[in-house]
Design brief:
This protein is α+β, with helices and mostly antiparallel strands. It is 39% helix and 30% strand. Helix 2 crosses helix 3.
Length: 162
């Protein structure tokens, strides 16, 4: 019983503060679905980033905005065995990005996404390479999700939603 009252209170509190879901009709991001065209990927990390962006924002049928990005990746050895072999790596990534209105050429928003992931380098060479590739894919998905969250969070300021 108290759970249903708490849930009702939360719903009423959100309604009172003016909360509107981002993709709701009239919401700040309602007109962003299928409207953002990311730069053409030139390598595997960029391909993974753009793939996730398109999963979240939809493929750009008729783009209104262009998303440019610059990816920076660094790998740091963090696990060292007694025979001085690196056994674990942190893959650190940063994406600097900008969103530009295609009609006016003006930058409407931009930012930076940063995160890291890790992988083990123990086992065979093939296993180590597969672990590194998997870590890179996970990292690009994390960074793409951060970019989408930043776009949605700022969309009320520039998207033109009514």
């Amino acid at each position: 019983m108290w759970l249903s009252k708490a849930l009702l209170f939360c719903v009423l509190a959100l309604a009172a503060c003016g909360f509107t879901p981002a993709y709701a009709p009239g919401g700040p991001a309602a007109n962003l679905q299928n409207a953002i065209l990311a730069d053409e990927p030139r390598d595997k990390p960029a391909f993974d980033l753009v793939e996730r962006l398109e999963e979240r924002l939809g493929p750009s049928d008729v783009p209104r905005f262009a998303l440019s990005y610059k990816i920076k990746l660094d790998s740091d050895g963090v696990g060292i065995s007694t025979d001085n072999a690196t056994t674990r790596y942190h893959l650190v990534g940063r994406v600097d990005w900008q969103l530009t209105d295609l009609a006016s050429g003006a930058q409407v928003t931009g930012g930076q996404a940063r995160s890291f992931t890790a992988y083990s380098a123990t086992g065979s060479t093939v296993a180590g390479l597969a672990a590194e590739e998997d870590a890179s894919l996970r990292l690009m998905r994390i960074l793409a999700d951060q970019i989408v969250s930043q776009i949605l969070a700022t969309s009320a300021n520039w998207s033109g939603a009514q």
